[in-house]
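Severity: low
Component: inverse-folding endpoint
Summary: output formatting inconsistent between runs
Steps to reproduce: submit the following structure tokens with default settings.
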């Protein structure tokens, strides 16, 4: 759910397409690719989001995950009314409630409740379908969600962001965490932090898988890929270029702007 900078004169937008529609097309065209959609826990409602993701999980035969993120930019918040962006504590309270409510909705349709008996006309065993009745501070849901269980049961939760609040959210709910460590030692340290968070929330230390991000430029040869990368750098504004230099400085521990 993007909504950051609006100047796209020389740089294509990072999130131009609505993810649910886009991933529906990907699900139709593929059979084995897993799809993780990013949706805000701040500017969505549990029932709508649970239904959308569960529908996509049904269409893809159990290949969907949800990257649950809080919205942290005022530019995005402006697109959802004139209320100010909630503070960090409130946003993460909302995130915990949102995931709880969505997972409760997903879990309401019993694994064996889907009958579809042609002889009797019975579609489902209502004794195995449980309304959510979720009552939180920020979100309330009655349920139930009338979509049968998919092959993976529930879509897995993903999380991104190494803040203490993000680590706690991951420890409670996440099966996967997107990370961007600069060194192997930092990656190992962060992995240990995630393990401890999982244990503190009564889970197995290995319940969370960590995924490192990579940025790449593709070409038929190394020289072609490098030339393409240099061309992309040429298109950068001064602000973007120096932002990249600052990022690289932080990565290697050397101030390249001095």
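Observed output (run 2 of 3):
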């Amino acid at each position: 759910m993007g909504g950051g900078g609006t100047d796209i004169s020389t740089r294509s937008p990072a999130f131009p397409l609505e993810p649910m529609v886009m991933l529906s097309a990907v699900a139709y065209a593929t059979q084995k690719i897993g799809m993780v959609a990013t949706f805000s826990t701040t500017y969505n409602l549990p029932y709508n989001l649970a239904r959308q993701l569960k529908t996509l999980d049904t269409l893809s035969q159990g290949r969907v995950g949800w990257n649950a993120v809080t919205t942290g930019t005022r530019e995005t918040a402006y697109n959802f009314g004139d209320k100010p962006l909630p503070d960090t504590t409130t946003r993460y309270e909302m995130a915990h409630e949102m995931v709880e409510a969505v997972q409760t909705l997903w879990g309401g349709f019993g694994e064996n409740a889907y009958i579809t008996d042609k002889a009797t006309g019975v579609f489902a065993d209502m004794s195995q379908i449980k309304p959510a009745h979720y009552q939180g501070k920020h979100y309330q849901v009655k349920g139930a969600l009338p979509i049968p269980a998919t092959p993976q049961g529930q879509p897995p939760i993903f999380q991104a962001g190494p803040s203490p609040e993000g680590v706690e959210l991951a420890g409670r709910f996440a099966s996967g965490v997107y990370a961007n460590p600069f060194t192997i030692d930092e990656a190992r340290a962060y992995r240990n932090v995630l393990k401890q968070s999982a244990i503190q929330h009564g889970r197995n230390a290995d319940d969370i898988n960590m995924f490192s991000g990579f940025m790449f430029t593709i070409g038929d040869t190394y020289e072609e890929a490098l030339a393409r990368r240099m061309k992309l750098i040429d298109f950068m504004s001064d602000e973007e270029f120096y932002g990249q230099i600052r990022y690289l400085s932080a990565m290697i521990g050397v101030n390249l702007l001095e």
